[in-house]
Amino acid sequence: MTLHTPLSYSVERRFIWYRVAKNGTRTLNQVLKNHIPDYRYLNRRDPKPSDLHDLASTSCFRFAFVRNPWERLLSGWLSKFHHANPERAIRLARALRAEVTAAQMEVWMTDFAAFVQALPGSALYRNNVHFMPQTMILGGVPLDFEGRFERFEADVRHVMRESGVPCDVTIPHKNRSRRSGPYASYYAEKTRAIADALYTEDGIRYGYRFEEGTE
After folding, report:
1. What three-state secondary structure class fits 162?
2. pLDDT digits (tens, 9 = 90+) for 99-138
3. Structure pTM?
4. Whole-angstrom Cα distance, residue 213 to residue 204?
5. How many CB atoms lie within 10 A of CB 200?
6. CB of 172 within 8 A of CB of 31?
7. CA 138 to chain centre
């Protein structure tokens, strides 16, 4: 049996973290890895261990982190295309189009609007955890706690308390997106309309809206 949602867990501390990429996952993973001896990090294609199956059948602490979908989309593009090593970026680009020319690759790495226009219907949108809707990643998972990227440190400390990690532990800041200006400044009218359609369910389910001038 394989996993549909990337997750991490600890049998000893009795929690399952349903990971959503681009929502502070590297930071929280480092905290838990450093302080929980039996902590395990699984990918979507990893077999489901028997101890995880047993844990999931109990009243363990289940949590995930969500994020404003327009900001998350921009963050994914910045880290996986705009600031990425071209060799790595081209592997992802093939999920947008099977045959990728150097000229097309240059456009997708430098032009956010062009990238967003190529996303609908692509394998990158359907299958890649950095660009899939959060509602698609989490599905119908019943969560005890839904952390927010926008209040990340406070919500991470809540998770730490629940999992027995000392709350005086420093929370590192890993893989921050490098961008110029508020996320809304990257969206022209057409770009926003496409993103609105792609991530409608994220906005509805998690109560997010597009906010002009938001950092």
Report:
1. helix
2. 888 899 999 999 999 999 999 999 999 999 999 999 999 9
3. 0.91
4. 21
5. 13
6. yes
7. 11
Residue type, 118: A
Cα separation, 119 vs 111, in Å, equals: 13
Q: Is the pLDDT of residue 73 over 50?
A: yes
Instruction: Kindly state the tokens that stand for 86.
Output: 């071209």
* Predicted confidence (pLDDT) per residue in 139-194, tens digit: 888 999 999 999 999 999 999 999 998 877 788 765 566 666 899 999 999 999 99
Q: Distance (Å, rounded) from C-alpha 73 to C-alpha 81?
A: 11
> What is the b/e burial string over 27-39, where b = at least 16 CB atoms within 10 angstroms of the residue's CB?
bbbebbeeebeeb
Contacts of 211 (CB under 8 A, 6+ apart): 68, 184
Query: How far apart, in whole angstroms, are the C-alpha atoms of residue 73 and residue 199?
Result: 9
* Phi, psi dihedral angles at 207 (to 5 degrees): 75, 30
Q: Is the pLDDT assigned to residue 76 strictly greater than 50?
A: yes
Computed on alpha carbons and rounded to an integer, the radius of gyration of the chain in Å comes to 18
Sheet holding 7-10, edge to edge: 40-42, 7-10, 15-18, 61-66, 145-148
